[in-house]
Amino acid sequence: MQPQIRELDFSGQNIYAGIDVHKKSWKVSIYSEDLYHKTFNQPPEPEVLHRYLSRHFPKGTYHSVYEAGFCGFWIHDHLLSLGVNNVVVNPADVPTTDKEKKRKTDRIDSNKLARHLRSGNLEALYVPDRAIREDRNLVRMRGTLVKELTRYKNRIKSDLNYFGIQIPEQYATRSSYWSKRFMNWLGGLEHQQWSGTEAFRILIKHVQALREHLLEVNRKIRILSNDPHYRKRVDWLISLPGIGLTIAMILLTEIDDILRFHNQEKLRAYVGLTPTIHSSGDNDFHGEMINRGNKFIKSALIESAWKAVRVDPVLHMDYIRLCKRMKKNKAIVRIACKLLNRIQFVLKNEVPYVSGVK
User: If you average pLDDT over residues 272-287, what whole number do you get?
Assistant: First the structure.
């Protein structure tokens, strides 16, 4: 007579959970190594999923996956702390059939994630530590403030044009534009109605407040750059032509560990400096840069490349040569790729850049 099983034991068995994450609820699909188990709704709490897995599949090895999005990586951190082997994937990299594209539901999405996790078809994203993510938020805040400041400056210029107010010549030069004297002149302007004057002064107050916030963020970034985690690497990066402290901090907080890129091609793909390719038979077409990539590094590199071609003789010669056979905006992308190669070399070898070395 066979002994009666009184306790479930899934030791050595893998259990897979695909999570379609939303703000108010999660749709979860569970698969074992051989069978589909169940799809259900649950509150957006990692503990609830862990309790379900522990109750129905005790002592099993748990794996889970969700798509990167609005919720960031806190779910990933929490699941790992509970003993669930979680990965985060790029939604664009999840294999999808035409039928799944045309009949898209939360149930289908969670099932698809669980199936592909079980099959090993998913490539996990690199998830930096919580400390790096918080440092990254501070550096990204500067970019947000710069965009807001530019937006409000454009609104002021639009208001001046709308009411036919000309900017005096002494404030129209590049050196005096948006200077303290120019701001004082703006503050002294009077419209015909008090309502127009007050609306204009509110715009000016926004610009002044944003400038103060930007100065504060710049000070905080400078303090962060002196942290032992960044100090040496910042010194190596600012030895490169066209790279200052702010761009160095953007690179370090976005890239984090340079050793995770095994070659230059992988780093370029991460940044988004690889062209689209359409190849069929004897026809090969190389198009514009791919849309995906790290937009923060890409914009910082393009800005640095424009500076570098003015101060580095080698890059200046390369830029002139490239401009003979392509447009300037395409040539500067090639220069940005060269600059990225130098960045990778400097960080991997932990040495400052030596001017004149190509």
Answer: 67
Q: Give bridge partners of residue 31 from the DSSP assignment.
A: 16, 36
In sequence order, what are the residues at sequence separation of 6 or more whose Cβ sits closer than 8 angstroms to the Cβ of residue 117?
16, 17, 18, 31, 63, 64, 65, 87
Query: How much is the pTM?
Result: 0.88
Cβ burial, residue 83 (10 Å; 0-12/13-18/19+): exposed
Complete DSSP assignment for 79-121: HHHTT-EEEEE-GGGS---HHHHHS--HHHHHHHHHHHHHHT-
Residue 78 burial (CB < 10 Å; 0-12/13-18/19+)? middle
Q: CA triplet 195, 196, 200: central angle to 5 degrees?
A: 115
Residue 88 pairs with which residues in a beta bridge?
A: 66
The residue with tokens 């940044």 is 271
Quick: pLDDT tens for 285-308: 566 667 788 999 999 999 999 999
Angle separating helix axes 180-187 and 194-225, nearest 10 degrees = 150
Residue from 185, 151, 150 nearest 168 by CA: 185
Tokens of 59: 């002592």
d(CA 299, CA 251): 11
Residue type, 132: I
* 8 Å CB contact between 272 and 292: yes
